[in-house]
Specification:
This protein is an all-alpha fold and 244 residues long. It has eleven helices and two strands.
């Protein structure tokens, strides 16, 4: 039963990661036509050309007018990633059932991790069913989310928290900063590799077993010298030291 739990957890986490990647790709495909750079360029060019032909604008005021034109938000549309995030926030409800179940799992991290804190917050909100995010200090899920998380529209903030948590979970699982204990592949780094205390006490034996020096420079120096020698000896070689 324990083995089945570990394998089932691995499959579940992999499916979640793939599902998140799929919804990001689908959202990205749906927002591509929203930015027509050619139209924006022609409009900007027309305004600059019109300003250049205006004889009623003093030369010393041209720079200020140019700055005013190029600073307008209409010529600086949101980046593609921002549009994808906004689209996901609009369409997060199909993923709501997935998030409800994910919030019930015992996610772990070293120290306080924003994703684990966000999962705990969502779990509490799901149990109380307010369907909005109460006002308060926003979770540190990245600066790109702060505007929506602090919005006066608390329903929007709630949906933004769901999407930010889901995307953050995928990234955290990939880099190993968040894990779940009953899993083979998605456990803490110390359980996957060697605990820090054990590594400190046994690293000399491990290096000796592999016939490796403990100083990385001692290992790299001969390799770099061989690279330099190969560069000098190859036909057309420059003979210059290789940058590293």
């Amino acid at each position: 039963m324990r083995y089945c739990l570990l394998k089932a957890t691995d499959r579940m986490v992999l499916m979640v990661r793939r599902r998140v990647a799929d919804i990001w790709r689908e959202a990205a495909a749906s927002v591509k036509p929203l930015i027509d750079w050619a139209v924006l360029y022609r409009k900007l060019f027309a305004e600059v050309q019109n300003l250049a032909t205006r004889i009623d604008v003093p030369d010393h005021a041209i720079r200020g007018r140019l700055f005013e034109i190029t600073s307008r938000a209409e010529y600086k549309p949101p980046r593609g990633a921002q549009l994808v995030r906004e689209r996901l926030v609009e369409e997060v409800w199909p993923l709501h059932a997935l998030l409800v179940q994910l919030a019930k799992l015992p996610w772990k991290s070293e120290g306080e991790h924003p994703v684990v804190q966000a999962m705990a917050t969502l779990g509490d909100l799901y149990r109380r069913c307010p369907w909005f995010l109460p006002a308060g200090p926003p979770l540190a899920l990245g600066s790109v989310w702060q505007k929506m998380l602090t919005s006066e529209d608390r329903d929007l903030a709630f949906r933004a928290l769901e999407v930010a948590t889901l995307l953050g979970l995928r990234k955290a699982l990939r880099n190993g900063s968040v894990w779940i204990e009953h899993s083979f592949s998605f456990r803490s780094r110390e359980r996957l590799f060697i605990p820090r205390d054990r590594w400190i006490s046994e690293r000399s034996c491990q290096y000796a077993r592999l016939s490796l020096p403990e100083d990385p420079q001692e290992f790299l120096a001969p390799l770099l010298e061989r690279v330099r020698s190969g560069d000098r000896n190859r036909p057309g070689g420059s003979g210059r030291p290789v940058k590293h």
